[in-house]
Amino acid sequence: MTISRRNFLKAAAGGGAVLATTGVADPALARPNLEMPPKAIGLLYDATLCVGCKACVVACREANDLSPVFSTDEKLWDTPLDISAYTFNVIKMYKDGNGENKDQLKDGHAFVKRSCLHCVDPSCVSACPVSAMEKNAENGIVSYDADRCIGCRYCVAACPYGVPRFQYDTPKPKIGKCELCRHRLPEGKIAACAEKCPTGATLFGTVEQIKGEIARRRAAKPGEMVAYERQRVGSGDTHEKKAPRYVDHVYGEKELGGTQMMMLSGVPFVALGMPELPERSYSSISETIQHTLYGGLIAPVVALGGLVALAWRASKNHQDEE
Amino acid sequence: MSIQKPLSPAHRPAPLGGSLVTPVTVICALLSAIAVYILAKRFIFGLGAVTNINDGFPWGVWIAWDVVIGTALACGGYSMALLVYIMNKGRYHPLVRPALLASLFGYTLGGASVMFDLGRYWNFYHIFTPGLAHPDSVMFEVAVCISLYIMVMWVEFSPAFFDRFGWTGMKTLVERLMFAFIGLGVLLPSMHQSSLGSLLVVFGHQIHPLWQTPLLPLLFLLSAIAMGFAVVVFESTLATSGFRLKSETRLLAGIASVMNGLLAAYLVVRFGDLAVSGKLGLAFSSGFLSLMFWLEIAFFALPLLLLQGARRNRARCLFIGAVSMLLGGGLYRMDGFLVAYQTGAGWTYFPSLPELMVTIGLIAFEVLAYIVLVRVLPVLHPNKSEPAVAAAVAAE
User: Fold this and answer.
1) Pairs across A and B, CB distance < 8 A
2) Mean pLDDT of successive 10-residue segments in chain B (396 residues)?
3) CB < 8 Å to A310, chain B
4) Choosing among B12, B78, B137, B149, which should be mutated to test the A contact, i.e. which has the most A CBs within 10 A?
């Protein structure tokens, strides 16, 4: 008996038809973006208020018990160039031409805070095979538990913002990332970066408060005097400054289903190194495929039944042929 | 995996015998030893001491080659089981056992090599721990299915060991239940070979659009099965010439025609998907990545063009076609996991020498183990005249 392609495809369809339906997602199994948790907390980073003092970088180190990271020969000052498994928060800078004008694209400069954005629908959590990355159902903090972690670095590879980082220089490595100072919250404290920020560029609050604050700032006319709070929304600790001209984009409002750290800026976010992202979360696409194929193990069990029956038939036939 | 009743001695697989110390085995052993030394360094000082992986490219060749390509190259057993037991093509039966042995090794070593790459390998069992295991994770599915499949393959191959040790009772028991293991042995690789593609879906824009698609699992599955058939042709050609066995060209021609069917399906899905999502233009406008894309396509297309009609019966054409298929499937995976993985400005990765030596050592160890095992276990079908067969029959 010869095999034709058609026969092959027919048989393949008989055995593993269910497995071949990958692209066609059943709407009932489609997994939409996750929703913002009810008591979500987060940060507002307003690049126009940031003066690049890096008090937040130092505060983050103290709060998370991290040693200084050096990038100069003298090794005198803490000079991290990027976030890493040993640095959870940095301030980076955009510069163009002579760099004189703050928050301007041309001949200007601008700062940007890089740290975990605490996604509403995080890729790292979806990717983690052992629940070492988890999103708190109440406050939405994306946390890491080294005791669970197997060190596969799928989270490092998956994060669209490049946030979780790995320790390559030790036989007992961990992932390092901002966890929004979740260990300080029970003491009634807020994220250290927001607590130490002298201008309120980094501001702590519930996501609801942060959204309100964003609306208030965007409503202000450029040039008019506006009061800005420090530390947290509702702290009452304010200073006054002229309202800037923001770009018409709140970073983290819609990116991959939103994030709990949101950003305002005077220059486009692409210039600050933030990726342009669609609204549908990557984890929802990935999990829709997984649920379609493996939801309730229904398809695999049906396929297994068919495969076992075919194998049994073949084993009978092969014996008869003898 | 012998479901059949005992065949006449001339048709039975038998140990090939012969010396285990040859230039090839010695070189393989040396390369394996170098890999062991480098791995010792990795376990004492950490991954960074021997690899070039970084936070932009946290997965290097130990994942892309050893696991992703390695297990696809080990799909021979899976593809042959699909052909012989699911599609009921009994005449290919002689090719099953050698294919299964290669798969057993490819997968067992691929699985083991994951342990070198895992930063916190001592926590590995968490993947199977209820409460920690995370079924939404593609990695979870891959890890569980590969682990189970390795166990299933050892069961499938166990009759060869029972033969060797004369444990007839165990052999009969396993063979009676074999159809169930064969079913599992086809289901599990279907699941994880497709999921190896799904691993990339969550990377989103970080994978270049020429590779990023929700059809990744289907493309990975089709190409993995085709690679399984190609590897059977490849290994069979090498084994028959290396061990001077009877040529199996006629059987291999049949395999090649099935492989071409899968290749055609793969290309239709790949180009159909690019066309439907309006990404065909990127195949010409993506610079270096366009080049890599067309290189892949060329490797995939060559067997389709080469193995038509009578040429399919020529051993050389078969071998070239198979190698081309393996290069195409390998490159597709290497591109997906490393070359087309764009993680942001400033990150680069090229494997370090020690990193490559571990991968090479792993392949060397596989070759070494294969040679040793076919010489001591009944796997291949030697010529009747070989004294090894007589010895094997006498041993029973």
Assistant:
1) 260
2) 44 75 92 97 96 96 94 93 88 86 88 92 95 94 93 88 83 88 92 95 96 96 96 87 76 91 96 95 95 97 89 86 96 97 90 96 90 80 47 36
3) 85-88, 183
4) B137
Each domain of chain B, given as residue ranges in start order, spans 12-395
Tell me the fold of B12-395: Formate dehydrogenase/DMSO reductase fold (1.20.1630)
Label residue B45 exposed, middle or buried (CB < 10 Å: 0-12, 13-18, 19+).
middle
**Chosen from B51, B187, B268 to mutate, greatest number of chain A CBs within 10 A:** B187
Q: Which of A157, A289, A294 sits opposite B58 (nearest CB)?
A: A157
The contacts of residue B281 (CB under 8 Å, 6+ apart) are none
Give A241's strand partners: A226
Q: Where are the domains of chain A?
A: 5-31+290-321, 41-279
Euclidean distance between CA atoms A16 and A173, whole angstroms: 40
What ipTM was estimated for this complex?
A: 0.88
pLDDT digits (tens, 9 = 90+) for A114-149: 999 999 999 999 999 999 999 999 999 999 999 999
Q: For domain A41-279, which architecture applies? A: 2-Layer Sandwich (3.30)
